[in-house]
Amino acid sequence: MPGTNSILVVSKNQLNKINTWMFLLRGCAILILISTFIPALNPAMVSGLIDKNSALFTMAVSYSSLVEGFTRAINRGWVNSGTVLNIYISSLLTFLSVAAIVAGCCMTLGKLKLQRLGIKIIIIGCGAAIISLLLLFPAYYALCGSTNLNAVQPMISYSYLIFDIFLIVCAVLGFVNIKLLPRPSENDKYEMEAKYKLFLMALPFVILCFLFSYLPLWGWRYAFFDYTPGLGLSWNNFVGLKWFEFLFKNAASRADIIRVMTNTLAMSGIGIATSFLPMAFAICLTEIRSLKLRKSIQVVTTIPNFISWVLVYSLAFAMFSTEGFVNTVLINLGLEKTATNFLMSGSHIWLKMWLWGTWKGLGWSAIIYIAAISGIDQQLYEAATVDGAGRFKKIWHITIPGLMPTFYVLLLLSIAGILSNGMDQYYVFRNAANQNSIEVLDLYVYLLGLGSGGTGNIPLATVVGMLKSVISITLLMAANWFSKLLRGESII
Amino acid sequence: MNADSVNKTNLPSKKFKIFKVRSDRGLGDIIFDFFNHAFFILFSLICLFPFYYLFINTISDNNLVSSGQILWYPKGIHFDNYLALLQVHDLATATFVSVARTIIGTALMVLASAFVGYLVTKQKMYGRRFIYRFIVITMYFNAGLIPWYLNMSMLGLTNNFWGYIIPGIVSPFNIILVKTYIESIPPDLEESAEIDGAGYFTIFWKIILPLSKPILATIAIFGAVGNWNSFTDSMILMSGNPSLYTLQYRLYIYLTSTSDLATLMNSGGSVSQNVINSVMNMRTMRMTVAMVTLIPILLVYPFMQRYFEKGIMIGAVKG
């Protein structure tokens, strides 16, 4: 937006024109920013030894991962370590120039004087980026002089050209905008309207949110390729829906899925079937009259919720292993002749996992009901007492109906989360004897994709994860719709 | 559930009435009370005993421990096990990593939640509703573990300490909590500061931050516990760099490793190894490491008491 003084000399028609060019400039700057995160558009990909999945951003922030790819070549003397440093510095400078372009782009939201400064910074940034990219050529020629060209594979890919085109277009747009904008008067200051200031303050967090919550969705593309770590994705290994079909047509993976789904649904099912327990726990606890005792019980029973599953497992190890408490007591009482390691047994795993989950979480989940009980109107109880209702009648007719809304919400949420048991608990308790009945969907995805040290089936694991995500969000929507229908209230 | 319920946590004390009710209690009441008390006392013991058992085993005579003879009280009390752990180098590294990620991760998360929570209450902001929804909606979907891992690797955050910190900075749920809280602060204070010419950062730092201390303390404590307890991120992201393992993951490795103590402890000098071998065995070693991992949680637990009830209630009335 131009400053108040200059608005007099700019007609409305001109203003619209300026806005259009401004949007183009900003769009181009954002395009450049995004392409630094896309491996396929990485201009600094000058050698086949660079990981095909590294974007310009990856190369700029992580020198170690760049060196990793070249370690063997440097040791054999194919590549000079100075060349690698050259590539790194060039990509770092390019990235910093892109950062300058983005900063300039933010400044164009300001008033006239700041806007012009922003555009100048964008133009300078574009120039700096083009020069930084030119610095790749010494490295490229050094790579071309290598003794083992087959391994090093020096290249200047089409992405270099595309990136340069982006930068040139951006610079040209910058010049156009500078020409169109009126000169600032002497009274103008570097200023920005409050609404844009606030927007820019929130922007870094929006970007973080995008990077860690939205960008992973882009990784769903791995489900459609024959991907092996280190090699990139290209149309050569595009396989369409092969892995989706594989999941259901291949007998072994179908059996796996059936087994894993049985475990998942069974364990979630036990949890849902017993989801009234926290409510019962809370009701019974509030029936204890001594406030001190009640508080102490509450404190003690919530401790387990705050320790990790690894610690739960170490307590389980202390209590139930061969030399543990339970075995010693059983032998002392003569109920058992030889000690057994209960953790290694594979029987009743579903039940045992439920018991551990209950031990850890019951006291904690009851708190929400305890708070809800203290929110019930006391006059209801007093009126019931006057009418001659006993304790159990009051629980049945006042407390439980008062807790039902909370119960419904939690029940619907747990139904929506039926596939998401998490993997921590099952991962720590898993061993050779129980692995068939303990593997839930989350754990299965981990073991399938990453569990076997770099040889996992990443596309198949992505497919399973994808299906899980889609089903989960559908269930959540359905639960929300159901809640709206039934109680007129949304739960999410 | 409404906001009123948060305030009414204490039942009104009605001593007279309780006395009156007690005098005409029926047999059913008495039986119920008996079983009710019995159940809760038993359940509390079940919750507490494993911790006590673990503790007495780490301070008792190691020979008695390894033959499982320490059941109810410690025998031959000594603290050599804890001293011996000081010589385990990878454990010291892991403790450092865990403490660092807990402090840095929690501090950044709390500051970011407070700041974003404050910003999204500003009606003036360009694109306010969009930004708020953009962040909040991420609570309800999830790309899945593998795409997340590949994304982290693409961002250069695998085998990198910042991989623990940066993904946790923006936490939608905590942003909602802070936003709801800030909206309940009377706007007059802020307005008068604005008239006095204070900028957004000044208002945030001098007014909003001090006023929202209770909610920030709540999310800080939950964040710290979450950071301290997490181990799968260590296992998935840091697999190439064992010096970045957290204490929890080290503990897991110790618990499941089948190699002998000397190999496991990886402690360098031969003298210290002899010391360790003479006082410890695999079982006591595992339990002592578990105890060390547990201590910080037990230390902050009393402070959490004040906050956790509040936390879960605000969570329930999120808006």
TrEMBL record, chain A:
Location of the ABC transmembrane type-1 domain: 261-479
Annotated InterPro entries: MetI-like, MetI-like_sf, UgpAE/MalFG_permease
Bilayer-crossing regions: 20-42, 87-109, 121-143, 155-178, 198-217, 265-285, 306-333, 353-374, 395-419, 458-482
Record's bilayer topology term: Multi-pass membrane protein
Key words, A-Z: Cell membrane, Membrane, Transmembrane, Transmembrane helix, Transport
Pfam families according to UniProt: BPD_transp_1
Subcellular localization(s) per the UniProt record: Cell membrane
Similarity annotation: Belongs to the binding-protein-dependent transport system permease family.
Name this protein carries in UniProt: Aldouronate transport system permease protein
Organism (species): Thermoanaerobacterium butyriciformans
From TrEMBL, chain B:
PROSITE patterns: ABC_TM1
UniProt main location, coarse: membrane
Ranges that cross the membrane: 30-55, 91-118, 130-149, 161-182, 203-225, 287-304
Domain called ABC transmembrane type-1: residue spans: 95-304
UniProt KW keywords: Cell membrane, Membrane, Sugar transport, Transmembrane, Transmembrane helix, Transport
Places the protein is found: Cell membrane
Membership in a protein family: Belongs to the binding-protein-dependent transport system permease family.
Name of the protein: Multiple sugar transport system permease protein/putative aldouronate transport system permease protein
Native organism: Thermoanaerobacterium butyriciformans
Lineage, highest ranks first: Bacteria, Bacillati, Bacillota, Clostridia, Thermoanaerobacterales
